[in-house]
Automatic annotation (TrEMBL):
Region (Disordered): 266-285
Domain AAA+ ATPase: residue ranges: 49-194
PANTHER family named among the record's database cross-references: AAA DOMAIN-CONTAINING, VACUOLAR PROTEIN SORTING-ASSOCIATED PROTEIN 4A
Source species of the chain: Vibrio japonicus
Biased composition (Polar residues): 276-285
Protein name stated in the entry: AAA family ATPase
Length: 285
């Protein structure tokens, strides 16, 4: 039974530079430092903060990378660090979900009570924590959500030297159970709209490998990115496609690259469509 994904070995990937997310990175970073500072116990009460973070936005915008970068940095700066990531395969034996969530939280509590700085990363939280009230959700999902909520509340009631930080990512904020949403204090939208300079920073290392001769008008790319609401990952995929063309000896010029971008379907807009059709099913929102 593999409810939990393997712990990610971030050291392998190292830090991956994100473009257009400086504000988001600074906010999340500052929040984690605040949670683990000595101001937390007093100020969090006054401000009603919980040590929970939710990053939301379309696919391929850097949410997972942002958390992984942060976790790698925290890990590097502290020997008292404990990180766990949770990848739930919801369609597998749902009866086990609650049990697995409980044992994960037990582990977190144990680590926190030893004075460790616990960081839990939950990617694509919606698969687990989608609305409890959707008619098509099985009772296993509902139980899973309830267990998660009660475990989280229990964890946050206790006091530790360093409160555990729970950070999650989702594509579908509206899809999430409102009781779940409420329990994430810091909600950060990750949906960068890249300008020409940022686009250049993102794709020129790739262009350099593909072809030294290719010169690209980044202003033009910027307007295509805005027109088609392309995400950073959409741009990366287009560049990969041209790299592969080059690999098999097919020649192309700037016009082809721009045409490639023009005809690329945005993963952000397909995500929007899904979200809309989902919302119409979801009476809660
Ligand atoms: N803002 C960005 N700057 C640079 N690279 C980015 C950015 N956003 C995404 N990428 C790249 O795109 C790929 C996917 O990013 P990531 O997995 O972090 O996206 P995500 O938002 O978690 O997507 P999903 O919602 O599908 O899980 C990674 O290789 C990442 O480096
Ligand atoms: Mg992700």
């Amino acid at each position: 039974m593999h409810l939990f994904g393997e712990k990610k070995i971030i050291a392998d990937h190292g830090h991956q530079e994100l473009i257009g997310l400086e504000q988001q990175e600074r906010l999340v970073d500052a929040f984690c430092k605040f949670v683990w500072s000595d101001k937390w116990s007093e100020q969090s009460k006054a401000l009603h903060f919980m040590p929970t973070i939710l990053l939301y936005g379309p696919p391929g915008t850097g949410k997972t990378t942002l958390l992984s970068n942060l976790a790698a940095e925290l890990e590097a700066n502290s020997s008292k660090y404990y990180r766990e990531s949770l990848d739930l395969l919801v369609n597998k034996d749902l009866g086990e979900t609650s049990k697995a969530i409980k044992s994960l939280f037990d582990e977190l509590k144990e680590q926190a009570s030893c004075g460790k700085k616990v960081f839990l990363q939950i990617d694509d939280v919606d698969s687990l924590l989608s609305s409890r009230y959707l008619s098509n959700e099985s009772s296993g999902v509902r139980r899973g959500v309830n267990t998660f909520l009660s475990q989280l509340d229990e964890l946050l009631l206790e006091s530790y030297d360093f409160m555990p930080i729970i950070a999650a990512t989702t594509n579908m904020l509206s899809h999430l159970d409102s009781a779940v949403k409420r329990r994430f204090s810091l909600k950060v939208e990750v949906n960068p709209v890249l300008n020409a300079k940022e686009i250049e920073a993102l794709i020129s290392p790739m262009l350099d490998i593909i072809s030294k001769e290719l010169t690209i008008d980044f202003q033009e790319v910027e307007s295509l990115v805005h027109e088609n609401t392309l995400t950073p990952n959409d741009l990366i995929l287009v560049m990969q496609r041209f790299f592969l063309q080059d690999l098999i000896g097919n020649r192309f010029c700037e016009k082809d690259v721009l045409e490639g971008l023009r005809s690329t379907e945005s993963s952000s807009s397909t995500f929007e469509q899904q979200r809309k059709s989902f919302s119409s099913l979801n009476k809660e929102d």
